Amino acid sequence: MSNHVGPNYLRVFWTLVRNSLVRDMTFRSNFLIECLSSFSWVLMNLGFYLLIFAYTQEIGRGSGWGKYEFFVFLATTMFINSVVQAFFMPNAQEFSELIRSGSLDFALLKPIDTQFLVSLKQVDWSALANFVVGLGLLGYSLFRLTTRPEDPLRLTPMMPVWYVFYLGCGVAIMYSLMISLAATSIWLGRNQTLYNFWFYITNFSRYPMEIYSGTYGEPLRFLFTFLIPVLVVVNVPARIMALPLRWQDGMAHLLPAFAVVATVVSLVGSRWVFQRALGSYRSASS
């Protein structure tokens, strides 16, 4: 099951991306319907939060997440979720079918890293529709924040750079969690319940961590920050862009450093889980 280093991974990735685009364009009506469905869901979600902000000035008392700060947060969620859903989710969902049908045997025989191949085999281009909406929402929100009369947001040249970097960290953490759960199919045969678990816990990443307070909120905040670090996925890049962290914020200013550590640990841990699972795999022909 050892993999070779020979192939040009960038070229292979580009080929997979291109083939997926050709496949989606073959069924253009279905592609357009899926894009419209994504747009509709985003608009309903946005309308829900507009309704909330009609009754309150910010989410979480004293958190600083006002209307447009939160819309930066929402746009960040769209970016990360759309990338994960486009590039990784279809392949993770198909992994158990590869095992059941024996197609994983062919992936293992190819002179390329197995995890790379099964993670990026196909791309769901329609899932990137939300990415486009997120760009528009982010641009509009930043415009409102930087032009407001009282305490306007001051963007620095490095803020977009760090924002993109931590978006990548967020995608890596979500991918690590997803591929780890997918790998358990080798041991369990079918793990639909674990996929449901992924959706449940990633729901916590859709809200600012400041709302998790009090008797029940603090344990959840600790669990999903330090043990399963889904809270840093969106919170760190969104805060960097909308609510820049300062030394006066106490331990909060350490979140960017922790996000990098969490990303590295998540990637290494998911790689270990995947390799251990492959070590337990028994060929369908054996």
Provide a short characterization of the protein structure.
The protein has 286 residues and is mainly alpha-helical. The protein is 70% helix and 0% strand.
Biggest β-sheet, characterized? none
Oligomer class: single chain
Strand percentage, roughly?
under 5%
Helix content: over 70%
Q: Outline, from the CA principal axes?
A: globular
In angstroms, what separates the terminal alpha carbons?
Answer: 14 Å
What's the rounded overall pLDDT mean? 85
> What's the alpha carbon Rg, rounded to whole Å?
20 Å
Structurally, the number of domains stands at: 1
Give helix and strand order, one letter per element, not per position.
HHHHHHHHHHHHH
Question: How many distinct helices?
Answer: 13
Describe the structure.
By secondary structure, this protein is an all-alpha fold. The protein has one domain. Helix content is about 70%, strand content about 0%. The chain contains 13 helices and no strands. The two termini are about 15 Å apart. Mean pLDDT is about 85; it is low at about 1-5.
